[in-house]
């Protein structure tokens, strides 16, 4: 029914941070088709790459014959999860949450199969049950099973409590119980046996397991995926220039593709195991050859292709590859207007212009040169290109320089680019 030893497969790929009662869970999923879930609170209009690993695990479980359930936190997002947050979350409006729920639901639909007969993915919203419950019933039926002493000793809460300047509000403190109730309802109504989430969700998952055990005397399971931390200490998915979003309107497919092309060398093969479906044995062979024939750069491109295809589809992957060829290999023939719009969005620095006297002025305006004198020297040394063509003398712009009548690419050497938008 399922992939041979699915849990071991996840472990071999570095996809498990913590798992409860692994032996029993292994027996269950090897002999039965189970239902599992992961929750996503719509606290923005898009998911980001930090959400990819839970989605990939859901996909792997579905491929192995199990039923994945996506729970959108329409109710819990009104509170905000305080787990390992330094400050209290901003409380979003119901209108925003409803709009974001719709957008995020569409994003998630690309990762899972919602139309297969036996184990179609299911998307739910927890406001279905929270809209029906009153505060007294919740406190009596749920709150009585939780010890304040244990709750405040959880790492995620303790870090906030020991900061007297910030602390934690009762609103955020109650989040743990809300997520626990989600797991309980899903177990009762949809026979969900397993919850997955990021490593920072372990406290919330454990609370759900506790509640189910106390109220229903059932054994359920939790599995967390590692939180990936960069060398600068920031969570994976956050960069100096901002979050890498899954929404093409917030992070262009080209910038998304380049993010993976520019990861640290030490992460390449771990990420190939985590984020792609390439066999581990093949990845290990690639790693053994990483110091030969620029193999590691090629493998970064394999990683970038697989993840861009997974998130954005084939059309946008081809666009990202065209733009890369245009900028770094000077191949202009196949470039499309939509590709240049991606560059304008967030690919390279750009500026809106009307009239520019000459190339020297454009280089200063774009900060590719500090002065006209420096610009002149750069041009004379043959280090400046217009639309991938080397320029050896000062140049007056004309319509021929405007790709699609709108764009001119200025380049200094191989790595410094700027887009003039007419």
UniProtKB/TrEMBL annotation:
Superkingdom of the source species:
Bacteria
**Mind telling me which residue stretches traverse the membrane in this protein?**
none
InterPro entries given in the database record: aa-tRNA-synth_Ic, Rossmann-like_a/b/a_fold, S4_RNA-bd_sf, SYY-like_C, Tyr-tRNA-ligase, Tyr-tRNA-ligase_bac-type, Tyr-tRNA-ligase_bac_1
Entry keywords, A to Z = Aminoacyl-tRNA synthetase, ATP-binding, Cytoplasm, Ligase, Nucleotide-binding, Protein biosynthesis, RNA-binding
Tell me which residues bind L-tyrosine.
37, 175, 179
Q: Name one Pfam family in it.
A: tRNA-synt_1b
Q: Enumerate the subcellular locations listed in this protein's record, separating them with semicolons.
A: Cytoplasm
Q: What class of enzyme is it?
A: ligase
Amino-acid positions noted as binding ATP in the UniProt annotation, renumbered to this chain: 238
Gene Ontology annotations for the cellular component aspect, listed alphabetically? cytosol
| A single GO molecular function term of this UniProt record | tyrosine-tRNA ligase activity
Reaction equation(s) it catalyzes: tRNA(Tyr) + L-tyrosine + ATP = L-tyrosyl-tRNA(Tyr) + AMP + diphosphate + H(+)
- GO BP annotation list: tyrosyl-tRNA aminoacylation
NCBIfam families, alphabetically?
tyrS
The cross-references to HAMAP family, in alphabetical order and at most eight, read: Tyr_tRNA_synth_type1 (MF_02006)
Which family does the record claim for this protein? Belongs to the class-I aminoacyl-tRNA synthetase family. TyrS type 1 subfamily.
* Protein's name in the database: Tyrosine--tRNA ligase
Protein's gene: tyrS
